[in-house]
Design brief:
Length: about 260
């Protein structure tokens, strides 16, 4: 039987961790487990996660002593999941913005795709409780990403996604340098360059009810800088390939597509 691990990074999510884990377990069957990756939260999130893990063998907790960004937490979670033999690895936020009720459909899509993206910006996707400037920033950032990298993915910055374990055999995780939210673009870009099959499915994203968003100006600047660098590097490699080998690089667009949600 295929097994899946939902990785939930936490830092000061004491009000959110128990509800999101409960919803995740309720929305899925026993083949789906949860790994809470806590970055030494001062508000006691890690202790709450330990309490939950004592109540069910479907929940595991990783305690990290340093806080080195979202990317670092996910990379640690991926390594743990691969070591323990899970077939599918899920990224999901702790704050309730990602609805666990989409998981059965997303996991089903992962049976025939390497990477499944929960997308806010394809037909059927939407956001709830966001101010206009947050939506403008996200839509604008994704538009710039598509133009800079030449990709077709509409929501490369989203953080609700499913990887197959075999996908990581072709993605160079050791080379991932981005730590903030650009980590999401980084992994999506690596998957497309590796020729993996990527699918977007619409989700509703709901702004957190409790706690404080981790988004900052530094995160936006990191994303713009790295995406620009990757785009320039891709174009230089394209030119070298045409000049030296008389052929273009493999397309980063053809393996990405979108599907409707399960109820459509």
């Amino acid at each position: 039987m295929s097994t899946s691990l939902v990785i939930i990074p936490t830092y000061d999510e004491a009000e959110n961790v128990r509800p999101i884990v409960a919803r995740t377990l309720a929305a899925t069957d026993d083949s789906v487990h949860v790994l809470v990756v806590d970055d030494n939260s001062p508000d006691g999130t890690g202790d709450i996660a330990d309490e939950i893990a004592r109540e069910t063998d479907r929940v595991h907790v990783m305690h990290r002593t340093v806080k080195d960004g979202l990317g670092g937490a996910y990379l640690a979670g991926f390594a743990w999941g691969l070591e323990h033999g899970y077939d599918k690895l899920v990224e999901m936020d702790a704050d309730g913005s990602h609805h666990p009720e989409y998981l059965p459909w997303m996991l089903e899509l992962a049976d025939s795709n390497d990477l499944v993206l929960g997308s806010r910006w394809i037909k059927g996707g939407e956001v709830e409780n966001w101010p206009w400037y947050r939506e403008l920033l996200s839509r604008g950032g994704n538009l710039y990403t598509r133009m800079a990298l030449g990709i077709a993915v509409r929501d490369a910055t989203g953080g609700f996604r499913v990887f197959t374990s075999t996908a990581f055999e072709r993605i160079d995780l050791a080379g991932v340098a981005s730590k903030g939210y650009c980590f999401q673009v980084d992994l999506c870009w690596r998957a497309l360059e590796a020729g993996l099959r990527v699918v977007e499915t619409p989700i509703t994203f709901t702004e957190r009810e409790f706690g404080v968003s981790k988004m900052s100006g530094n995160i936006v600047r990191e994303s713009l800088t790295l995406v620009t660098k990757w785009g320039i590097d891709r174009r230089l490699r394209e030119v070298r390939s045409v000049v030296k080998n008389h052929r273009r690089l493999p397309s980063v667009r053809k393996n990405a597509h979108a599907v409707a949600d399960q109820s459509a």
